[in-house]
């Protein structure tokens, strides 16, 4: 909506003017059955034309221009006023005007123009044009002969045809030049690759030959290559010497152990093996995990893994304190001797239009020094001895056509890296495009990386830049199922994943983005929550059930519904992975013939995740910062007191500036908002004492991942805090921003909720986490506790983002 435009809503036969003040979920907007866009700019030119007969057979054309301004938009819409029609009727009411030219011939044009102009000016002065809701004033008068009108129309059509022909010719010329340029560059690239191969010296010489480098730059480049070669050889020599030295030390230590075991000493005393080696060698270094494996292979008593949930005690020893006598042996770590693993994606940074390109994806255990600086060490990787399957899925926009399969399953072995896989794409559209690569173990998300590349009409191939993400854990959580939902250009794409089965993606077409239907459903739920729509318990339950069943039937493809029932009995948690989506999946009510288990959130923990979100195994909920404006909800004091009694907390933050400073400092722990929120066309706003806090203001914290070190829980207990609004190429809301900034969990509402019910939900959620429940279980427990009031749908309003198996730190 432009700066000089307003919306007029028809609500119960009343007309309401919105000057960008009404929220999208406001009562008047929800109940409106018609909306009209009205231009209220000052003095908009409007032309009215009428013909007047002459003394000859032909007619003159009188063209009158007025400056018009809409002063009452509601009345203009109610009376269906059209400025041009109003002005034409106004001119025709002057009967003298229509007879004024009867005494004039075509040759008397100039005299007629004088008289017509004087007549209309006098008429508009004595009887100005008037219409309720419009202000109109005369600007100018023209009188045209039929020949002038016809000539003008012919010139206009001729000019339009010439423009069309020139545009077609220009387009064809550009296409020919583009094709020739692409072919020339392709041949040049093939020749360069054939000539250079993998020799950097040849590349420098060719660049100097083409004039891209001068003699000094060539000499500097050759010297740099020589230095790099010498440095590589030095590093190889050092590594070779270190390996030999390490091998000699290990052999010495093994020999000491063999002698101790041969003489029976290890049967009589508890030996701290690592410390014994350090004392004997004088190195002060303890034994590494690979060294302990070597000791085990040589016949020394192996270490065992404790039972799940069991913690090692002092009696049973530690990883460096154990005995060969009896049954007590120490536990080993989760991943003994396994190197960190990384998800790596490589693609050119730039390609020409129409060119083929390769996206190479691999899972590697390369040392951090061999990977880009973005690499992070994996500290919780677990690979089964017989290998762990990891499925990689590639999501490319329509502008980059993916020719073959878009997913591949790697078998990751404990000591070997799987072979890389190539995905072939074709650049079909000019612009900057993003490819997303995601890794899954069953239904458990592991990591994702994004690769951006530019497609240009006359572009060349840019450098290949690898993108790296650490795989923090390669265990699939038993029973975790994930439903991926993506919305792109009128299509929804679904894919269901679990540790039982990896189903193929399913795509459905929708006539339009279902935002209006969503707003209608949320409006009904909000009315049930605030009491403006009252029913008995049975009717309220039916309305809620109908909303959830409609979502299940209309939005979830039949094939996905069948797959859901195949794995339902195995599910322990359900995750919805989506970024570009405003659908209230928390009200989903799976209902099919012979299958009715109620709302999904009633049966199992349900959470969401955003793409690009990092896995957090622990969530910081203790001592939260309370964000409360001075004019907060009426029950805010009781809500804060209840939460403080569970997790503690400091003094409230009341201003936007103080909160943003805290977030960007990286020192923010958990945060709990108890406030009012508004939601409009451009998203959500939280009003604090010094202004509105909006999601885009967290962009700096997102770029710096300012919350990653503390992994806090962020709970926005406000109206419509989880809604999203379009922003450039993505959807932007509080959840997306906080999770991208490194938050461990986010909790928000999908519609307006009752203050008392929201406070009870928050207290039950925090209490469950502090009692040891996992994130998904805590959300489920809070919903169950709030479900007792059958007339209040608040328990369905909350959406939770994070790892369903994360626990409180």
Describe the structure.
The chain is α+β, with helices and mostly antiparallel strands and 809 residues long. The model is unreliable at 266-273, 279-336, 372-381 and 725-731 (pLDDT under 50). It contains 21 helices and 36 strands. The strands form 10 sheets. Strands 12-14-10-8-17 form a 5-stranded antiparallel β-sheet, with no helix packed on it. A 5-stranded mixed β-sheet has the order 9-16-15-11-13, with no helix packed on it. 33% of the residues are buried. It starts with a strand and ends with a strand. Helix 7 packs antiparallel against helix 8, helix 15 (636-647) packs parallel to helix 19 (755-770) and helix 19 packs antiparallel against helix 20. It is globular and about 135 Å long.
Kindly provide the radius of gyration, computed on alpha-carbon positions and rounded to a whole number of angstroms.
Answer: 36 Å
User: Which term fits the overall shape?
Assistant: globular
The spatial strand order of the largest sheet comes to: 12-14-10-8-17
Largest sheet: number of strands, sense, barrel closure: 5 strands, antiparallel
Please state the structural category: alpha+beta
Low-confidence stretches: 266-273, 279-336, 372-381, 725-731
Indicate the proportion of strand residues: 25-35%
- The count of DSSP E runs of length 2 or more, i.e. the number of strands, is 36
The percentage helix is: 25-40%
């Amino acid at each position: 909506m432009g700066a000089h435009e307003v919306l007029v809503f028809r609500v119960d036969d009343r007309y309401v003017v919105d000057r960008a003040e009404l929220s999208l979920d406001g009562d008047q907007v929800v109940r409106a059955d018609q909306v009209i866009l009205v231009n209220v700019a000052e003095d908009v030119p409007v032309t009215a034309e009428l013909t007047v007969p002459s003394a000859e057979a032909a007619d003159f054309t009188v063209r009158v221009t007025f400056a018009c301004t809409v002063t009452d938009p509601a009345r203009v819409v109610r009376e269906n006023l059209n400025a041009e029609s109003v002005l034409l009727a106004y001119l025709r009411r002057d009967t003298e005007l229509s007879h004024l030219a009867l005494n004039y011939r075509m040759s008397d044009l100039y005299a007629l123009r004088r008289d017509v102009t004087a007549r209309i000016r006098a008429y508009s002065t004595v009887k100005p044009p008037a219409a309720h809701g419009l202000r109109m004033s005369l600007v100018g008068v023209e009188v045209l002969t039929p020949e002038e009108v016809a000539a003008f129309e012919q010139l206009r059509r001729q000019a339009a045809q010439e423009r069309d022909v020139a545009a077609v010719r220009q387009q064809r010329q550009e296409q020919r030049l583009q094709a020739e340029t692409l072919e020339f560059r392709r041949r040049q690239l093939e020749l360069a690759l054939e000539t250079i191969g993998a020799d950097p010296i040849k590349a420098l010489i060719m660049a100097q030959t083409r004039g891209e480098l001068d003699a000094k730059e060539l000499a500097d480049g050759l010297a740099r290559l020589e230095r790099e070669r010498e440095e590589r050889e030095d590093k190889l020599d050092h590594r070779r010497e270190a390996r030999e030295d390490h091998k000699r030390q290990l052999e010495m230590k093994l020999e000491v152990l063999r002698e101790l075991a041969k003489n029976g000493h290890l049967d009589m005393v508890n030996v701290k093996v690592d410390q014994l080696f350090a004392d004997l060698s004088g190195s002060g270094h303890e034994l590494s995990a690979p060294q302990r494996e070597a000791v085990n292979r040589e016949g020394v008593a192996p270490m065992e893994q404790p039972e799940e949930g069991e913690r090692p005690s002092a009696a049973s020893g530690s990883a460096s304190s154990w005995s060969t006598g009896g049954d007590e042996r120490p536990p080993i770590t989760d991943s003994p001797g396994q190197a960190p693993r990384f998800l790596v994606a490589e693609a050119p940074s730039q390609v020409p239009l129409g060119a083929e390109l390769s996206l190479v994806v691999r899972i590697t255990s390369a040392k951090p020094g061999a990977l880009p600086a973005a690499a992070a060490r994996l500290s919780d990787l677990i690979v089964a001895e017989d290998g762990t399957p990891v499925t990689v899925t590639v999501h490319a926009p329509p502008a980059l056509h993916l020719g073959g399969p878009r997913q591949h399953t790697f078998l990751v072995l404990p000591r070997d890296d799987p072979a890389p896989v190539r995905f072939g794409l074709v650049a079909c559209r000019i612009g900057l495009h993003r490819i997303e690569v995601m890794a899954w173990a069953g239904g458990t998300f592991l990591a994702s990386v994004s690769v951006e590349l530019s497609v240009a009409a006359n572009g060349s191939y840019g450098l290949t830049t690898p993108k790296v993400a650490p795989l923090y854990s390669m265990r699939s959580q038993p029973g975790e199922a994930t439903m991926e939902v993506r919305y792109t250009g009128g299509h929804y794409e679904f894919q269901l994943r679990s540790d039982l089965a990896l189903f193929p993606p399913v795509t459905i077409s929708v006539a339009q983005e279902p935002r209006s239907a969503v707003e209608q459903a949320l409006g009904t739920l909000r009315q049930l929550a605030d009491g403006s729509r009252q029913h008995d318990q049975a009717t309220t339950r039916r309305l809620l059930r109908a909303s959830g069943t409609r979502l299940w039937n209309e939005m979830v493809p039949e094939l996905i519904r069948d797959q859901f029932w195949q794995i339902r009995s195995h599910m322990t948690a359900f995750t919805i992975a989506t970024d570009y989506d405003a659908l209230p999946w928390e009200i989903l009510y799976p209902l099919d013939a012979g299958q009715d288990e109620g709302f999904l959130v009633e049966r199992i923990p349900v959470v969401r995740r955003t793409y690009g979100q990092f896995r957090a195994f622990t969530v910081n909920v203790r001592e939260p910062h309370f964000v409360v404006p001075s004019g907060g909800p009426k029950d805010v004091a009781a809500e804060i007191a209840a939460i403080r009694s569970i997790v503690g907390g400091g003094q409230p933050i009341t201003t936007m500036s103080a909160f943003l400073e805290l977030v960007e400092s990286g020192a923010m722990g958990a945060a709990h908002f108890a406030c009012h929120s508004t939601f409009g066309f451009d998203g959500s706003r939280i009003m604090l004492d010094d202004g509105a806090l909006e999601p885009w203001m967290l962009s700096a914290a997102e770029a710096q991942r300012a919350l990653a070190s503390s992994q806090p829980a962020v709970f926005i207990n406000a109206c419509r805090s989880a809604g999203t609004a379009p922003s450039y190429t993505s959807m932007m809301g509080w959840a997306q921003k906080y999770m991208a900034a490194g938050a461990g969990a986010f909790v928000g509402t999908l519609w307006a909720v009752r203050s008392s019910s929201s406070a009870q939900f928050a207290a039950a959620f925090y209490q469950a986490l502090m009692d040891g429940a996992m994130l998904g279980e805590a959300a489920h427990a809070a919903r169950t506790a709030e479900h007792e009031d059958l007339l209040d749908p608040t328990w369905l309003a909350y959406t939770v983002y994070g790892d369903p198996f994360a626990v409180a730190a």
